[in-house]
Design brief:
alpha/beta; single chain; three-stranded mixed sheet; 9 strands; globular; binds coenzyme A; 2-enoyl-CoA Hydratase, Chain A, domain 1
């Protein structure tokens, strides 16, 4: 067993850190399994949302320190980088449910997730400097953008653990819930996303992640997608549902509806 398990629940692909005796610390084999699972979810048209969570009361303790020293990643083709590229480039919405420790990449990967829920007992940590390392996963770019320079510098320089309330305050986490409710709440949120108009949802994520920087460029970019969506079966279904006083049904897929 690789330490990663996957499960399909309707249109949601769940990718689970499943090595509870080692607090779900991630080995090279687990990175390979993570990358494969994410690539498979992206390629499968029936999957609309990906949900990450961990078994055994932990999200992940980050890199397996034994494995990391024995097999340090030495090139951009290594499984860890393949996984990071998959996360950063994911077209589909990524949801994460964080319980217990989320160390190193357990925290930095959240910067690439679209909706993050944390249990009240979640503990985040960026121990790179304490280990003689530096941030990864573009977190040196994304965390200061999200939290502000001073906050990011403090979290990276000191490497102190921080709790769910702090993570929510700095914008790393959207919702905090009791640990007993975490998975159900994350699944409910993932199911809600999976029921949305799929092409509109993917296009909205692409716009949110777009690198266009000026307001004028962004208006043009949005307009192109907006005009395309005006021609879509998704809009027809949404408007028909409104006038027929029923919930829209987008279950038949993107442009094929109608
Ligand atoms: N790599 C390898 N093994 C790890 C690990 C890691 N990153 N994190 C935990 N483990 C192992 C421990 O060695 C221990 O193994 P053992 O039972 O054979 O002794 C087991 O997992 C349980 O860990 P423990 O420290 O007892 O759990 P805890 O709940 O008290 O603390 C953490 C959890 C995650 C806070 C703590 O284990 C920790 O700080 N781990 C290191 C995190 C780290 O530096 N990651 C690298 C980031 S780049």
């Amino acid at each position: 067993m690789s330490g990663i398990t996957t499960e399909r629940r309707g249109a949601v692909a769940e990718i689970v850190f499943d090595r509870p005796d080692k607090r779900n610390a991630i080995t090279v084999a687990m990175y390979a399994a993570l990358a494969e699972a994410l690539e498979a979810a992206e390629a499968d048209e029936a999957v609309r949302v990906v949900l990450f969570h961990g078994h055994g009361g932990a999200f992940t303790a980050g890199n397996d320190l034994h494995d990391f020293l024995a097999h340090p990643p030495d090139g951009s083709d290594r499984p860890v980088f393949r996984f990071l590229r998959g996360l950063a480039g994911a077209r589909k919405p990524l949801v994460a449910a964080v319980q217990g420790p989320a160390v190193g990449i357990g925290t930095t990967m959240l910067l690439h997730c679209d909706l993050v829920l944390a249990a009240e007992d979640a503990r985040f940590m960026l121990p790179f400097v304490n280990l003689g390392l530096v941030p990864e996963a573009a977190s040196s770019l994304l965390l200061p953008r999200l939290a502000g320079y001073q906050r990011a510098a403090e979290l990276f320089f000191l490497g102190d653990p921080f709790d769910a309330a702090t993570a929510q305050r700095i914008g790393l986490v959207g919702r905090v819930v009791p640990a007993a409710d975490l998975l159900a709440a994350a699944r409910a949120l993932a199911d809600r996303l999976a029921a949305k108009a799929p092409a509109a949802l993917l296009a909205t994520k692409a716009l949110l992640k777009s690198a266009s920087v000026t307001v004028a460029e962004r208006i043009e970019e949005e307009a192109t997608v907006f005009v395309r969506q005006l021609q879509s079966a998704e809009l027809q279904e949404a408007v028909a549902a409104f006038f027929e006083k029923r919930a829209p049904d987008f279950s038949r897929g993107g442009r094929a509806i109608g």
